[in-house]
Amino acid sequence: MKKAIIYLEPLVCPSCTQKIESLIRKVNGVEKDSIKVLFNASKVKFIFNEDVISIQNIINEITKLGYQVLKYDVQVV
Ligand SMILES: [Cu+2]
């Protein structure tokens, strides 16, 4: 399993965190209980299985939703 931290452009309203969280919840291969969207830090954290989904696919989904990804970090857990 891998841990992802995604850094977004500053979020402007708290409902953005909900939109992003529900999007990531629908992604196969992401551990639902691990998802954290931090409004003030504009960060998204979650654990995922790289055999099922790639970080690039998840980033593409976030981008399609309308949020710009500044950078990301993937660590082995
Ligand atoms: Cu918003």
User: What is the CA–CA distance across the termini?
Assistant: 6 Å
Count the E strands. Answer: 4
CATH class: Alpha Beta
Provide the β-strand percentage band. Answer: 25-35%
| Gyration radius, rounded | 11 Å
The structure class reads: alpha+beta
CATH architecture: 2-Layer Sandwich
Q: How many distinct folded domains?
A: 1
What hetero molecules are in the model?
copper (II) ion
The main sheet orders its strands as 2-3-1-4
Largest sheet: 4 strands, antiparallel
Given the structure, what is the number of helices? 2
In round numbers, the mean pLDDT is 97
Q: What topology emerges from the helices and strands here?
A:
Elements: E1 2-8, H1 15-25, E2 36-38, E3 43-48, H2 55-65, E4 69-76
Antiparallel strand pairs: 1-3, 1-4, 2-3
Copper (II) ion is lined by residues 12-13, 15-16.
Based on the model shown, name its key terms.
4 strands; 77 residues; Alpha-Beta Plaits; globular
What do these coordinates show?
The relative contact order is 0.33. The chain has helices spanning 15-25, 55-65; strands at residues 2-8, 36-38, 43-48, 69-76. Helix 1 (15-25) packs across helix 2. The model has no long low-confidence stretch (mean pLDDT 97). The protein contains two helices and four strands, in the order E-H-E-E-H-E. The protein has a single domain (2-76), classed as Alpha-Beta Plaits. The chain has 77 residues and is an alpha+beta fold. It binds copper (II) ion.
Describe what is shown at a glance:
Strands 2-3-1-4 form a four-stranded antiparallel beta sheet, with helices on one face. The protein contains two helices and four strands; from the N terminus they run E-H-E-E-H-E. It starts with a strand and ends with a strand.
